[in-house]
């Protein structure tokens, strides 16, 4: 795990190239929003946001002039309606912007907007960020290949993302993991499957604060779903281990739990289950996935050194020197998916 402490602290932003812009337009991911990320930077006051325990959350609540606040509330409410109801403006009448928070910590420096229902005080969130091509690839791959659907939009250099609900992984490990009633066997199974999903689609840096744990009551127990919430490190780093959550020290408690409860044959069973599920999704969305990976092949979302290093790692892992001929992250991901899933795809097509 110590080998992962050199992960890039500040990944550069990669612009949206024309083929990716065309893909987003075709798939309904691009629309005019009437507001850009830079518009929210014009705040006049920022106050640290504390949690219920009085601890600094690393977010700041930002304030604007009265006139600017009214303009932003109108635009942000309409954006939320687009995100949640495909633009049904009738639902906007009882919605309001309760708070705007800004995070200077991390890579994307997002704004988090809290929308409140004036009738019952129920609230929801969404995020306004700078549009980064690697993050968009991560969001789209999550939507297509994971069990989770993702709602997001792009307008020029601005990215709007829905809030992904769940208990932050670091909070879950610290406060929930050892509580009575936690089904650790099911949780261990889900961590194995999450680990496999990240590795197959080359989503990196899944330390505990970059995912959430979603708990769903079942008729006789509970089910767990671990969901990524940070997609900045999609196919960027040059070491294969970065794409395996099991190797981050922040996840050690989950790894140790799994080692105690699941043997190697069961781990392999869960890995095969997840590969089969991803293969099904890939077959179902094969043309859209192909279009996306074609965009990635034309794009530059990492450095030549990182591409060469990852190509070498994947060549060793798959025992296939063809990886060494790949010139970019898109080519590596396409070959990695093919190598990992071809057995499952053949079986599914022969059913």
Secondary structure elements and pairings:
Blueprint (H helix, E strand, L loop, with lengths): L17 H9 L18 E6 L5 E8 L2 H20 L9 E9 L7 E7 L5 E8 L2 H13 L6 E4 L2 E5 L4 E2 H8 L7 H17 L10 E7 L4 E7 L23 H10 L2 H21 L1 H13 L5 H15 L10 H21 L2
Antiparallel strand pairs: 1-2, 2-3, 3-4, 4-5, 5-7, 6-7, 8-9, 9-10
Explain the overall architecture.
The structure is a single chain. The protein is of the alpha+beta class and 351 residues long. The chain folds into 2 domains: 2-7 and 166-349; 18-131 and 151-162, no CATH class. The chain is 42% helix and 18% strand. Strands 1-2-3-4-5-7-6 form a 7-stranded antiparallel beta sheet. Strands 8-9-10 form a 3-stranded antiparallel beta sheet. Helix 5 crosses helix 6. It is globular, with a radius of gyration of 21 Å. The two termini are 41 Å apart. The mean pLDDT is 93.
Tertiary shape: globular
Structural class assignment: alpha+beta
Strand content: 15-25%
Number of strands: 10
In short:
The chain is of the alpha+beta class and 351 residues long.
Can you give keywords for this protein?
single chain, 10 helices, 351 residues, alpha+beta, 10 strands, 42% helix, seven-stranded antiparallel sheet
């Amino acid at each position: 795990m110590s080998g992962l402490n050199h992960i890039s602290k500040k990944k550069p932003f990669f612009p949206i190239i024309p083929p990716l812009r065309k893909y987003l337009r075709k798939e309904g991911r691009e629309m005019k929003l009437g507001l850009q990320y830079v518009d929210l930077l014009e705040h006049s006051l920022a106050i640290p946001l504390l949690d219920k325990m009085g601890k600094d959350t690393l977010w700041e609540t930002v304030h604007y002039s009265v006139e600017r606040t009214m303009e932003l509330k109108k635009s942000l409410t309409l954006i939320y309606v687009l995100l949640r109801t495909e633009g049904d403006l009738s639902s906007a009448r009882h919605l309001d912007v309760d708070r705007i928070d800004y995070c200077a910590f991390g890579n994307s420096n997002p704004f988090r907007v809290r929308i409140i229902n004036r009738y019952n005080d129920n609230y929801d969130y969404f995020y306004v960020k700078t549009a980064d091509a690697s993050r968009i690839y991560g969001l789209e791959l999550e939507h297509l290949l994971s069990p989770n659907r993702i709602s997001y939009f792009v307008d020029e250099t601005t990215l709007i993302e829905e809030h992904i609900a769940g208990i932050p992984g670091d909070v879950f490990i610290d406060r929930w993991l050892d509580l009575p009633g936690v089904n650790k066997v099911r949780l261990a199974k889900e961590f194995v499957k999450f680990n496999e999903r990240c590795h197959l689609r080359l989503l990196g840096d899944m330390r505990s604060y970059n995912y959430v744990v979603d708990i769903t009551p079942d008729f006789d127990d509970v089910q767990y779903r671990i969901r990524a919430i940070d997609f900045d490190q999609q196919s960027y780093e040059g070491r294969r281990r970065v794409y395996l959550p099991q190797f981050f020290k922040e996840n050690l408690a989950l790894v140790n739990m799994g080692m105690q409860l699941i043997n190697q044959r069961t781990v392999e069973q869960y890995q095969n289950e997840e590969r089969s599920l991803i293969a099904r999704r890939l077959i179902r969305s094969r043309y859209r996935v192909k279009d996306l990976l074609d965009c990635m092949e034309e794009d530059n979302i990492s450095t030549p050194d990182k591409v060469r290093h990852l190509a070498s790692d994947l060549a060793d892992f798959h025992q296939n020197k063809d990886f060494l001929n790949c010139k970019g992250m898109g080519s590596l991901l396409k070959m990695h998916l093919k190598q990992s899933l071809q057995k499952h795809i053949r079986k599914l097509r022969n059913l």
